[in-house]
Amino acid sequence: MHRLRRFALVGIMAVALTGCSVSIGTTPTATPEPRPTATPRPTATPRPTATPLPTAEPTARPEPTIAPTMPSGTGGSTGGMLALVTIDRLDTFKHPAGLFSIDVPADWRRQESSNEATLVYAWTDANENALIVLSITETQEAPTQDDLAEQATEFVNIFKDEKDFSMDPPEKLRGGGVQIIWSYASDASGGVEARLLANTFSYRDVDKVSLLTFVIPEEQFDDLKPSLDAILRSYIVDPAIPLSGDASVRRFAFDFTNDEDKWATDVSTSLRAVIEDGVYRITLSDPDLYYLTAPDVSPADDLEVSADVLIQGNSRAGVAVRYGTGSPSTTRNYYTCWIDGGNQYGCFVSVNDRWTTLREPISNPAIKPGTVNRVSLKAQGNRIIFSVNGVEVQTFTDTRITRGQAALYLENFSTEAGAEFDNVIVTLLR
Q1: Most CB contacts within 10 A, which of 65, 149, 341, 421?
Q2: How many Cβ atoms sit within 10 Å of the Cβ of residue 177?
Q3: 177 and 76, same domain (yes or no)
Q4: CATH code, 181
Q5: What SS3 state is found at 57?
Q6: In the prediction, which pLDDT does 378 show?
Q7: Nearest 10 degrees: CA dihedral of 100, 105, 106, 112?
Q8: How many structural domains compose the chain?
Q9: Which residue range forms the structural domain that includes residue 228?
């Protein structure tokens, strides 16, 4: 079944897996008030001598199982006996840099293909009548389950011109992924025509998006299903590992499932900072306050922090770099850029708690109002770069602060305003 393997590899490489398209925003309906002048709450205390902690232990894929479809054509094979697909034993395959691991049939042949944006691995049985394909890419946006469904559908539709093609609607999985069941007919080894049953899964792990596809002869599906389910459950991604495998950077990934000991939490009269429902939720109850919080990761000269941000109420939220103590030690130094609930952003630098605006509030179509946006702030040398949903919206040069930690930033203008943060990546550059 050489045609099947070629179509799968070429198809995955053709699918753009860099996230959803950027929507055009509208001007906010309310003009943000001037920068707060009230005395701010104390910020989370930075820990400049802390040793970087490991990321949360990756967990195997939950819940979903390989499932049959309802093909539009006839099932089974025609023209002769279809060679059996065998899975006698599963061995664990580990990516050389530790990006992912997956259990695969021990005697299946592996092929690899990649470019700067995508890693692709494919495993085929001895007769090339069955296929497992895994594609991984990094995203600078914040894809939703709808976005994952759209990407998976785009991949499956590469095969829509195959004989007797059939595709069920995408199913959203409880764990946050998407599953599509589909099938078509093709020529297998020995000149036998067989109906192929496929399951495609799309997942997001912080800034990694995976497409995992199983293609099996339909008539052999029931016998192979237990092994296929075991393969699916075994797939683990470590989002702290860069796709490039660049050893010159150190990355720390936080998806707020088991990060309680790495971030400050607090519940008081004016502040609620809690990790719940898989997000880091911060709310300021009194108006005109701001708040910074840093993970337990060492400071650095050059670093980058990115996060999913969902604005709640009349607030501004974003990320900060080179965050640390000033002089006197009760003050703070940092660069920060934020977005609001509309489509505006701004940037400033704080030196000993004296704020200097670097970018007055301005709208940008890269910001998606009313939904999750992925923001990133990078400090490298004297350059500070702010990006939203993968679009570089602001670059400036400044030398006032040279070292510090990554942090999350929030300020509000009215009672009960805040933001949700998720999928935080801290990168220490060398």
Answers
A1: 421
A2: 23
A3: yes
A4: 3.40.1000.10
A5: coil
A6: 98
A7: -50
A8: 2
A9: 2-13+59-237
